[in-house]
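I hope you will forgive my troubling you with a question about protein structure. Here, with my thanks, is the record as I have it:
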Amino acid sequence: MVTRTSARPVFDIRPFQARDLDDVLAIEQESFSEPWTRSMFEAELQGNPFGRFLGAFLSGEVSSPRPLIGYICYWVVFEELRLMNLAVRQDCRRLGIASRLVRHAIEEGIVQGTTRALLEVRAGNRVGQQLYQALGFRQYGCRRSYYTNPNEDAILMQLPLTNNIYL
């Protein structure tokens, strides 16, 4: 367990795989009112040629478990990087993990030729909006009543990746 009073966790970012889904689903369940299901993640992992999946794993001895503490799912679709899903384990939030995951996804997208990053975030998710704004994303639109449980608008945000600071 990582606590707010402990040192910042040391973690590695690498692709997550089907064997990591139990940990992904646990974080997903504690993070969202309408979480993705195992079958949704499996479909993305196995059947989406645009899909990319990164996990933040606590660093440690090779022989010890390296628990997943956060993840990001994103698509690279031609020139666009679409951030689809981002979550961090509850006891590891506000430690820079989400920011590192987003930055890593952006860096990979740039290498693959993307020129802008897009995302949707709940209107009520102020922490998420602040994270994305701190990374340079700006609002460009709104989808009314896009989310349910509870009913909320989706704030559309984008980040041009042409003159960026990520590489």
